[in-house]
Amino acid sequence: MRRLTVPAIKGRKAGGQTRDPLVMLTAYTARQAQLLDTHCDMLLVGDSLGQVIYGLPSTLQVTLEMMIAHGAAVVRGSYHSLVVVDMPFGAYEASPQKAFDSASRIMAETGAAGVKLEGGAAMAETIAFLSQRGIPVMAHVGLTPQAVNALGGYGARGRSQEEHARIVSDGKAVQEAGAFAVVAEGVVEPIAVALTQSLEIPVIGIGASAECDGQVLVTEDMLGMFERVPRFVKRYEDLASVISKAAETYAAEVRSRTFPTRDQTYQPR
Ligand code: KIV
Ligand code: NA
Fold first, then answer.
1. Which listed residue, 27, 115, 176, 214, has the most CB atoms within 10 A of its CB?
2. DSSP state for residue 187 in the 8-state scheme
3. pLDDT of 31-44, one tens digit each?
């Protein structure tokens, strides 16, 4: 199985609605990437790793070095999915040149196929600058977590007429600029549907609509690693209790000296 390419992903929407929705999950480590790879079309090395892996309060503290280290691990652990790496806060907003410097490091040092950045019309010039220079860009509109301080929280976007219009025009702007796909996060469903119908590039939903051209979730969220998750997350597993049960049994066996047994120890020949 050859790794999916940007044109192949874009092509899945050729001529209207994607008949075969795009499957995307986040991955931060090589082993996680190995386990998810053949089930997905795209793996996203999301800056959500700030909270998920590093215990940071938001994505604002994530650095380019973190993204590169985890991006390289995910590329090493996968051979099928197209890997997209998030551009962290502060690494791209100031200018197209700054964005190119960050994105080219990500591409060269990880081997990923593209980068993702947050923003619509305001980032159009930057998206055009990168895509015209060989760096595929996935945009991200609606709830953009790097703007949490400006947005005032992580609530759904697009409840007002004005916001509705802005999200659709953001989508159009990033498409015009050359983005190969766009994530629509935390938007009311009619906007997700309108965006999907009005754009020629794939719209990947999260907290959006089943009508989108694809879906993405944070893997640890859908695996049930956290007690508190946004309402748009469906938990497909309850790994938190699986892991804590395993640790509880291990601890009991260490304390009672029932682990290790003969099977796990080396005896002289
Ligand atoms: O960082 C991330 O995981 C993301 C997805 C939720 C889209 O940007
Ligand atoms: Na992100």
1. 27
2. B
3. 999 999 999 999 99
Which atom of ligand 1 approaches the CA of 46 most closely? 1
The active-site residue, picked from 65, 162, 163, 185, is 185
Measured in degrees and rounded to the nearest 5, phi and psi for residue 126 equal -65, -40
Q: What is the pLDDT of residues 6-60, one digit of tens each?
A: 999 999 998 776 789 999 999 999 999 999 999 999 999 999 999 999 999 999 9
Q: Whose CA is nearest to atom 8 of ligand 1?
A: 46
Distance CA 33, CA 235 (A): 19
Pull the structure tokens for residue 261: 């047994």
Distance 49 CA to ligand 2 centre (A): 8
Spatial CA neighbour of 181 closest among 199, 202, 212: 202
Ordered by start, the domain boundaries in the chain are 6-264
Which atom of ligand 1 is nearest the CA belonging to 24?
7
Closest CA to 180 of 120, 116, 129: 116
Select from 18, 2, 1 the least CA-distant residue to 181. 18
pTM greater than the 0.90 cutoff: yes
